Task: structure prediction
Amino acid sequence: MSESPIYLDHSATTPVDPAVVAAMQPYWSTTYGNPSSLHEQGRQAARGLAAAREALAAALNAHPDEIIFTGCGSESDNLAIRGVLWAARQAGRGHHVITSAVEHEAVRTTCEQLAADAGFAVTVLPVDGHGLVDVAAVAAAIRPDTALISIMAANNEFGTVQPIEAIGTLARDRGVLFHSDAIQAAAFRRWDMAALPIDLLSLAPHKFYGPKGIGVLVARRGVELAPTLTGGGQEAGRRAGTSNVAFAVGAAEAFRLAMDRLDAYVAHCHRLRDRLIHGLLAALGPDIRLTGHPTERLPHHASFAVRGAGGNDLLMHLDAAGICASSGSACASGDPRPSAALEAMGLGPEWTRGGLRLTVGWQNSPADIDRALEATSRVVRQVQALAARFAVGAAGA
Result:
């Protein structure tokens, strides 16, 4: 009997915790009403939705009316950026947004589209060799018409944790709203929204053992958002669409569990992550390099650039070897183009096609990591050899 696969793609998604499934179950089969309905079934569903909102608010030290349920993390990013910029333009408060070169596509592409199609002004800040945004560069980019700064809490592809408290403090001092995509970082720190200088925070429960198909945007009281999804009055008019009560309940339960287990989870992931990093760097030497910051990185996140090997080739061979991995953002895996994030950190062509992301979670063990180290080292050498042989054949053709 072959060994079961080892899942090392927790930055892409996580399995749903059984306690989360149990919390959601009644809202599919028993309390199934539309929370906008006035009858008893609807009122029961509305109470469940309100309880989920209150639980999330309590875990974030926010107000319940600051919690907006969306369809996914990408929609939360879209609502934050589009909502703030359109509201600012309508009120004559500005039309400029500052972001970075290593944001998730949900932020980066949204800003590009707003610039191309609606004439908004966008400043895209560079990062250093570790993927860090310079706070001084943020300060220098602020203009009188700047309406929003959007910098992620931690990068999805290479795991670097950004100085969001310093950026948020700067934004507040300058009277600019600050949004942070915390989708990767949510389960690895505590979030006191009453104290943090963050006006909008995006979360995606499927990254912390909750369901896919729901997102959360925390929008501080007083932040004006033009709705990007219209047609109903749900979410206080900020996001139309029939409320997904079961998933909202699941989101709240998943986040509660994440905060309850935070210290143990960080310690567990940190040990396994370091075992992966040290093992692969030792095994592959100059043909592999750690990407992202060596210490200021997510506890579960090991990311690498591999010389002379394509990311897609690595993933296919790893999959055949029973290792579930990613070449960076799961949204971009399968894309043969060089990694924009690795290019932004200054890596050359020999490295930018060979991104590899290994992210650990609760179900992983030290034995899994040892097996993954052996398989990954072997696969990298195989893929490099195949690539070299193909290059020689192509040159002689």
In short: The CA atoms of residues 301 and 359 lie 5 Å apart. The longest strand covers residues 301-306. The chain has a mean pLDDT of 94. The first helix runs from residue 18 to 24.
